[in-house]
Task: structure prediction
Amino acid sequence: MSSHRSLGSRPSIPGFLSNLARRPRPGRDGAKDEAPPVIKLKSPREIGLMREAGRVVAKALDQVRQMAAPGVTTADMEHVVAAVFREHDAKPLFLGYPSSDKGKPPFPAVICASINEQVVHGIPNRRPLREGDVVSIDTGCSVNGWCGDAAVTLAIGQPSPQTQKLLAVTIETLDLAIRAMGRCRYWSEVASLMDRYVKSQGFYVIEKFVGHGIGQTMHEEPQVPNFVSKTLRKFDIKLEPGLVMAIEPMVAIGTKEVRTLSDGWTVETKDRRASAHFEHTVAMTVDGPRILTLLEDDPAAEPRLAPAERLAASTP
Ligand code: MG
Result:
């Protein structure tokens, strides 16, 4: 689930606030006397625990991917994801998430399902998906107290060539970001690459919502924009071992401007043209970035053992 960019309107989760209560609020663009965000780095053991949650999220999204076809509803997808979480004793992170708008209801589902012009935070419903739709499914869970968060945008049948290009560009943006994390020192370098790539393809990066640190809570410091924000220029994020972030480019065909619907959650593009969203939880390790929300470990992201060690490790 993406994080609203300004900290001031972030939902008031007691645990999250208690972490922030003892220090000045950072992160608001333009504010004076800001303190840098306090980032909790994770140990290799903790990253291993987060991998378990990430694997459950990946399994849930894989099942959703397999059922994506005309006639299926996002409510059907909700049931499938909830069942995967139950099977693994995983706690859904989105269900009951408080709204940042006072008086609006908490999020009512275990997935966000955002169709076509909807960018993020759509609520699953019983409208059958149609040929040519695109639907973004975002979900997260915790296992033994550690969180994972990921999203995919799925094509239903054959969307228009432009919408297919949107999906390709958005997943390429996530992919290039993760690869760049292995050779960049600061997130601003990665964010700049993402932003420039999207613009080079004629599309728009949504700026109102951003990725986020993640650990024992879903939304931790730092905020992780997909462009170089003023806050990022001031408090850049050092890409060091132990940093774990949910990286989630949101890309739109016609505008970066969005609005929130009266349900208090669903965010759509102002021009009502399509947008796409892909997300992985990624840990920086001494061996480079490691994607925690994959079904199978990515061999390239696994620790590189010397051939002799590898042989020894595989000997029964
Ligand atoms: Mg997220």
Q: What stands out?
A: Helices lie at 14-20, 44-67, 74-87, 161-181, 187-200, 230-234, 307-314. Confidence is low (pLDDT under 50) at residues 7-28, 301-316.
